[in-house]
Write a structure and sequence with these properties.
Strand order of the largest sheet: 13-14-16-17-18-19-20-21
Shape: elongated
CATH superfamily of the largest domain: EAL domain
Radius of gyration: 40 Å
Structural class: alpha/beta
Number of domains: 3
CATH class of the largest domain: Alpha Beta
Number of strands: 21
Largest sheet: 8 strands, mixed, barrel
CATH topology of the largest domain: TIM Barrel
Strand content: 15-25%
């Protein structure tokens, strides 16, 4: 509040008149203590018989709050003492308080005249019939502080742009405008920096923060002043665009954003390249709330990231349906494990050299969903990997496969050297309890370590650190063997492969299927077999479906085979029947 001392009082009563107005009425004397002790300003107004309101008292706090000597206004009609009240509801409110013992309270009352300006909280009550007290305090500073606090709670402290709270508030306002106006357009651009964690891990969080600040600056420079730019996560930004003539505008803005981010970031003399995965949700897409609208853009961003990062994807209803289906599938996994809905099938692996031998089986996880029926690994394994549930599914498969092979070995002595191949998730090995759980499973199922083969993908091995490799070597020392699954689809180096405790290379079925098509594919398979031989490893060809593929692979020196030519994946009972049949054929031959 900015108040000025009036240069001259509108009217000055004689001193004896002031004393009379201050002290003439005994009831008013009873409120002198209240007037003088209250930290809130207090004005007294009396309702005269002719309906006029007269200012009859003030306390020291009122003088302090209004920066003036209120005694100079005593005895004046309200409209002369405080002319700014005449155009407000205050006079009528005061009359009701004086006459009807009403109470009036308002938290924000704006007062303006040529001498006083401010925002006040008022609380008015009757002192006695015809006399009211108006207690007030200045809320101008509080209002400024509340505005500042509101700004702080809606601002990202690092970058200075809007935070998640303000972003959602602005989106909510945009949704309301869209309901009222048919021509209103808005769009949400969700930006996630790719592999930003690598910057923090290699250069430190100070460098990472500098990049985030510069990203915010570049985003603001890439859009209009009226658009909202917000940081809603560690490395996640949102741009809310409003009031544009065509939905081409957000696409143009995204192009500017990508171009801006393509310029290297210079931090402490280091040049850093940053890419971003971007999701777009247009206002024409249905959204019932700000959270839902933001979720739609987020889903599109994650779809872009899943496709290889540094991409742009728009939200669609089919994407939402697909995501909801994945979420339901993920939620059903825990129930499925608990209720025994998962089961294993077993595909025989044969060694076809001079003699025909049953080398072992590969255990393949299946899910019999109570509502959807059979769900194959190609659908549920990626979901399990994204959610982390693949770890428990992996241990379940390992325990179940080990138990079954132990049972078969006890029934059929011919299988004492048979191997059980089980896929090992790269998420399992880094866990602290990996080795203890592996030992526990082997102990509980009574399966010798020499009968277990763990299959790891080539890509997972290439991304493994020294601690992971050390754990694999420890298992190898126990007797467990290892196979590189889908070999040839990644980017293995010979030097790296020599560090790993590998026993087998498995040729990916995509190469096997192309053997009959072109010479190049034949040479690739030949090179893989020669590499395995030089590293003293055996080669398993998977996906062998016909005799021609078998003959070509045999000619290249491959001895281990797996595929439909020999057997499809079998249930536990049918796999045991396969063992019996195979034994009978071996004996008869």
């Amino acid at each position: 509040m900015a108040a000025k001392l009036p240069p001259k009082a509108a009217k000055t009563e004689p001193a004896e008149s002031k004393n009379t107005l201050r002290n003439s009425k005994g009831s008013e004397r009873r409120y002198q203590n209240l007037l003088h002790s209250s930290p809130m300003g207090i004005h007294l107004f009396r309702l005269e018989e002719d309906g006029r309101l007269v200012f009859t008292g003030a306390n020291p706090a009122a003088d302090k709050l209004m920066h003036m000597d209120n005694s100079r206004l005593l005895g004046l009609p309200l409209e002369q003492a405080f002319p700014g009240l005449t155009s407000t509801e205050a006079p009528e409110r005061f009359r009701k308080v004086c006459a009807d013992n009403a109470v009036w309270h308002t938290e924000q009352f704006e007062y303006r005249d040529q001498d006083i300006a401010g925002s006040f909280e008022l609380h008015c009550f009757q002192v006695e019939p015809g006399l009211c007290a108006c207690m007030f305090q200045d809320r101008s500073e509080r209002k400024i502080m509340e505005t500042r606090l509101r700004h702080l709670t809606q601002q990202d402290p690092l970058t200075g742009i809007a935070n998640r709270t303000m972003c959602l508030e602005r989106i909510g306002i945009a949704l309301q405008r869209a309901k009222r106006r048919a021509d209103y357009r808005h769009a949400i651009i969700y930006i996630d920096l790719d592999r930003f964690k690598n910057i923090n891990d290699t250069l430190g969080h100070t460098a990472g923060d500098a990049v985030l600040v510069d990203v915010a600056r570049r985003l603001r420079a890439s859009v209009r002043e009226l658009d909202t730019v917000a940081r809603i996560g560690s490395d996640e930004f949102v741009v809310l665009m409003e009031e544009f003539d065509s939905y081409k505008r957000p696409i143009q803005a995204i192009k500017r954003i990508r171009y801006s981010l393509s310029e290297p970031f210079v931090v402490e003399g280091e040049q850093i390249t940053v890419t971003a995965s971007i999701g777009l949700a247009l206002g024409q897409d249905l959204a019932g709330s700000a959270e839902e609208a933001l979720r739609n853009a987020n889903l599109a961003m994650h779809h872009a990231k899943a496709l290889g990062r540094n991409r742009i994807k728009s939200f669609t209803q089919s994407l939402l349906r697909q995501t909801l289906s994945v979420v339901r599938l993920e939620n059903d996994m825990d129930r499925g494990l608990a209720r025994g809905e998962f089961f294993l099938e077993f595909q025989p692996i044969l060694r076809l050299g001079k003699t025909r031998q049953l080398f072992g089986f590969e255990a393949l996880a299946r899910w019999r969903h109570p509502e959807r029926g059979l769900i194959m690994p190609g659908e549920f394994i990626p979901v399990a990997e994204d959610s982390g549930k693949v770890v428990e599914i992996g241990y379940w498969a390992l325990r179940e496969a080990s138990r079954i092979l132990t049972k078969w070995r006890e029934r059929y002595p011919h299988l004492k050297d048979a191997m059980m191949s089980v896929n090992l998730s790269p998420q399992q090995v880094p866990k602290v309890d990996f080795l203890p759980r592996m030992r526990e499973i082997l102990k509980d199922t009574r399966l010798p370590a020499q009968n277990l083969k763990l299959e790891v993908t080539e890509t997972a091995l290439m991304q493994s650190g020294s601690s992971v490799i050390a754990k694999l070597h420890e298992l190898r020392a126990m007797g467990v063997s290892f196979s590189v699954d889908d070999f040839g689809t990644g980017y293995s180096s010979l030097a790296y492969l020599t560090r790993l405790p590998l026993d087998h290379l498995k040729i990916d079925l995509s190469f096997v299927r192309m053997l009959e098509v072109g010479k190049d594919n034949l040479e690739i398979v030949r090179a893989i077999i020669q590499l395995a031989t030089s590293l003293r490893m055996d080669v398993v060809a998977e996906g062998v479906e016909n005799a021609t593929q078998h003959d070509i692979l045999t000619g290249l020196g491959c001895e281990y085979f797996q595929g439909y030519l020999f057997s499809r994946p079998l249930s536990e009972d049918r796999a045991e029947a396969f063992v019996q049949t195979f034994m009978s054929e071996a004996i008869s031959s």
